[in-house]
Amino acid sequence: MSASVSQLISHGRLRRGTGTTPADPDAAVQLVDVTKTYGAGDSAVAALQSVSLRVPRGGFLAVMGRSGSGKSTLLHCAAGLDVPTSGTVTIGGTAVSRLNETQRTVVRRQHVGFIFQSYNLIPSLSIQDNITLPLRLAGELPDPDWLRTVVERVGLAGYLHRMPSELSGGQQQRAAIARALASRPDVIFADEPTGALDLSTATAVLDLLRDLVTEFGQTVVMVTHDPLAASYADDTVVMLDGRIDQVLQRPDAATLAAVLGGYHR
Ligand SMILES: Nc1ncnc2c1ncn2[C@@H]1O[C@H](COP(=O)(O)OP(=O)(O)OP(=O)(O)O)[C@@H](O)[C@H]1O
């Protein structure tokens, strides 16, 4: 088992990084001294301030924090959707923060999977075509054995020819998880993946995400407001004013709820 994100942070090995720290080959995602500033002058907003973070391969990290603390900005920078103002982001050994938009798109398609609260399936495509779309956009042929494994694992083997509107919310989210897994990405970023689901469906989706980490060694980074969701992760970082304020190792939902309550008071 790789070292957890919290161990590295609590020892300060990356927090004090200079931005020239070499990429760690065992990390699925690594941020070194990442700062993101929106705007300039008097209206500048420091959304991330010198954030360093290492997510080991096969790690499951939750990102929490009150509204405006920088969670989405962290996810966008870590996933190569946006570039930091300064600092380095490495995904699977590639320094995405140094790439242009076109190059980052290529890296994202091949090395990153995404799961969103609203599933983001294409309504006019079958479930099968939705699942294979990112691969086809990347100009790659799906590996039939892996696709069969993924589709069976998410419980959608009999649903591939249906349209998204013919599935329940939980089934649509499981299709989105299969889509995220199809390219065997270095990391899956999940943004409030259970935000639109009822409790029992959400629990099934969280069980599935946890199993993907345990069974396939999949790395997952999940932004969530929900202490129950975060309790499925290995570690939870709590953001405050663009910084990592706390790292909690395997906290239960009650502990997380109490910790977060402190930030809202
Ligand atoms: N495009 C932008 N332009 C200017 N400021 C922005 C932009 N995006 C985010 N911010 C600001 O950066 C800070 C961090 O925002 P971010 O969306 O990352 O927070 P968050 O923790 O994800 O919030 P929420 O839980 O409400 O989604 C906030 O002060 C926000 O207003």
Automatic annotation (TrEMBL):
Molecular function terms from GO: ATP binding; ATP hydrolysis activity; transmembrane transporter activity
Stretches for region Disordered: 1-25
Matches recorded under Gene3D superfamilies: P-loop containing nucleotide triphosphate hydrolases (3.40.50.300)
Domain ABC transporter span(s) in chain numbering: 29-260
Cellular component annotations (GO), alphabetically ordered: membrane protein complex; plasma membrane
Keywords, comma-separated and alphabetical: ATP-binding, Nucleotide-binding, Transport
Keyword DNA-binding: no
SUPFAM superfamilies from the UniProt entry: P-loop containing nucleoside triphosphate hydrolases
Keyword Membrane annotated: no
Stored SMART domains: AAA (SM00382)
InterPro entries: AAA+_ATPase, ABC_transporter-like_ATP-bd, ABC_transporter-like_CS, ABC_transpr_LolD-like, MacB-like_ATP-bd, P-loop_NTPase
Protein name: ABC transporter ATP-binding protein
